[in-house]
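Hi R.,

Here's the chain you asked about this morning:
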Amino acid sequence: MIITEENSPSRITEEEDILRAIRSELIEDAVEALVVSVGGIDVPVDELLELVRA
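And the predicted structure, written out as tokens:
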């Protein structure tokens, strides 16, 4: 994650809390997109989990 502040050069953060929060948000977005995309074809949760684990 690149941090940009006024009157300071950009830098890459190593703050674990920020990185964890960004990771969590990215995972949530990906899961939501997956659920929406398979929702129309009525995939059972067990089958979906099996495919994700593979």
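Helices lie at 16-39, 45-53.

Let me know if you need anything else.
M.
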